[in-house]
TrEMBL record, chain A:
E.C. designation(s): 2.7.13.3
Protein name: histidine kinase
Catalytic reactions of this protein: ATP + protein L-histidine = ADP + protein N-phospho-L-histidine
Domain Histidine kinase: 12-227
Superkingdom of source: Bacteria
Swiss-Prot/TrEMBL keywords: ATP-binding, Kinase, Nucleotide-binding, Transferase, Two-component regulatory system
Molecular-function annotations in GO: ATP binding; phosphorelay response regulator activity; protein histidine kinase activity; protein kinase activator activity
Enzyme class: transferase
InterPro entries: BphY/WalK/GraS-like (IPR050351), HATPase_C_sf (IPR036890), HATPase_dom (IPR003594), His_kinase_dom (IPR005467)
From TrEMBL, chain B:
Biological process, per Gene Ontology: phosphorelay signal transduction system
Domain Response regulatory span(s) in chain numbering: 10-129
PROSITE patterns in UniProt: RESPONSE_REGULATORY, TPR
Name of the protein this chain belongs to: Tetratricopeptide repeat-containing protein
Protein origin, superkingdom: Bacteria
PANTHER family: TWO-COMPONENT RESPONSE REGULATOR (PTHR43228), TWO-COMPONENT RESPONSE REGULATOR ARR22 (PTHR43228:SF1)
Cross-referenced CDD domains: REC_TPR (cd17589)
Taxonomic placement: Bacteria, Pseudomonadati, Pseudomonadota, Gammaproteobacteria, Chromatiales
Residues bearing the modification 4-aspartylphosphate: 60
Amino acid sequence: MDSLDFSDILASSVHDIKNSLGLILTNLDDLIANPDNRIANPSQANVLQHEVRRANGSLIQLLTLYKLGQQQLSVRISDNNVSEFFNELIAENLSVCRSLNLEVLAVCDPDLEGYFDTELIRSVLDSTIGNARRYARRQIQLNAECQAEYLVLRVEDDGPGFPDYLTTLRDYRPSALREKSDATHTQLGLYFAARIAQLHRHGEHSGRIQLHNAHQLSGGCFELWLP
Amino acid sequence: MTNPLFAPKSFLVVDDMGEMRSAIKAMLVALGSTQVEQARDGLDAIQKMKQKRFDVILCDYNLGPGKDGQQVLEEARLRHLIGVDVIFVMITAENARGMVMGAVEYAPDSYVSKPFTKELLEARLLKLFERKADLAAVNKALVAKDKPGALREINALIANKPRNLGELLKIKSEICIDTNLLDEAEATLKQVLAVREMPWAVFSLGKIAFLRKQFDQAETIFKQLIAQDPTFISAYDWLAKSQTAQRQFDAAENTLREAIRISPRNIPRQHTLADLALNNGHSDVAEHAYTQAVGLAKHSVLNHPAIFAGLAKSKSVNGKHDEALKVTRDIRKSFPDQPEATFYAASANALVKANQGDHEGAAAALALAEQALAGLNETAHASDYALELAKTYVELGQGDKAAPILQQAIANNHDDEAILAQIITLCQESDLKYDAETEIRTIQQALIKTNNEGVHLIKQGQFDAAIKLLSQAAEQMPGNKTINLNAAMAMLMYMEHRGINREDVQTVHHYVERIQRLAPDDWRLADLNKRLRKLLTGLKSDG
């Protein structure tokens, strides 16, 4: 057999893993949703559900960052209705949030349009929602608006909020983060989000991310600014 | 919770993994679907679509060995198994993104990436149901090949200032390009680009430049798109077309080699590359591309004896004469009952035998090719066959026989730059005593004159003279679609004014059949058919 290209190995492994994750997820959703099933400790099933989604998100990040490094990633901007886009994100997260007793909703002008790569932005927001699920007490909110020629997409929760060193951060590279934090979190997700935002360009402007606390809800607020 | 919109719709789920098919089917059933069928691979999917019309097709991109999801979609569209009113959703793992998402000629309605939840599938399908319902009138006209009707419907939708304006403008620009309303298409695209630089709109501007024969401008546009996004695969195909039209054959070959490195599973792309490489003297590249094309074309609607003939020729040029002869025998086996196959097999055979030094065998094969071609339908002389035979004549040192064939090919394709470019190159590279460029100019001028005169006569109401002029031209150039269209239109208008007669109706039918073979997708054909039907039914109701 010829020597295999690493990207081929990666691609076919990801394909297999995603098939497995898909089946685990579907069966788990059915298992939890079926009232005939009795699970001694339902929160264990919810942890499984949450972690499967996170594993999937990490896999997408890994592959996307790999492609970015190989300069194989191209951004395909399309014209999207933001409200519809949010509805799909919520649909994707509904089952897991429901079993964690979290309410997830979108606040957005139904006519708001935005230009972005749906697949890339979906994976950024999906992993941000995944993160919010860990900290939210009762609510997660998605909202969007136009501000100074940018489209601002937000994911907010009512948890304890981001630590200070994150809300003042401007450089999201893992090396820069290590210096600031206690080195237990690499925050690869933030680096991923910042890179994807940067890839969105229009004229002189390029996208960025920003972390806040207490915007609409009391907890953390992740902002994606897209030109 | 079931949704009442799901029950009346029929679904086809295509996936090579049984568990995955069952999981998706279970989701659909939970959403309220009652008609869900499954297919395990591409062939099975095509088979199922032949038997029944589905409303929604959910197809995994990765289907194991054999066809992938994109090929299933292309095959289904080319075979007219699914129209624009059918929803096709491509299910992908993230790894397929690069391959799949490159703006392709045949794009699915939507992509869903794995894993996905039932709720996401519901949200996505409901959105698609709504889109198709919005576009129902447009799609109905498109399915009926009534392009002017589709344009009216889309304009009516746009006038309502809808939410999905961008999408509607895109559809409008496509319809305008198809109906040769290039100025209107350009204006529509500029409207989109005034808001935001969208690559698809720039791509369409490139196509318009190409259709206006502004090939250098088209080339610049496609190159710019590729520089911005090296995975924009259709831009490579059109760049190669623009380069071929300007007779930059080496550049066109390089463009397609690059495209194939990114996306190797497209039959026309492999075939075009192979033809270019063979003519450019890169027989190793040609043989490889023909081999790929033959493999991909198996069980495909795009399979054609010309691909096999090319493979045989390239093998022979590479000194593999025995393998080449075996390929020519395979042509007949792969295409039983097809007279074209006999022609291509004989023509390729003649070349291989000549390369082997078997001049008697070559002459016999050539005679067989001539005989097969004579037995083919008159429009078959149009271009590909004529060029094939002309090339064989040249290779066999019988260039004098090539000239009349080329003359006919020019007359039949006076406005097809790609074919004209091939003819000119053939003449330049062989020492054929035939000045193709001058001949082309002469023929083009004569044709334009005939057409203009015919149209002028029609306008003046001198139908008899117009019909005489145009039908004479149509007999001389049975493979020229424009002349046939105009001749049919002249007779039709004559009958609309003076009443119908059986003989003329038959002649119009004859022209329509020719155009049907030459350019089945030309919108003017649909218009012609519509007027003809109206004329005939009008007669019946009048008694």
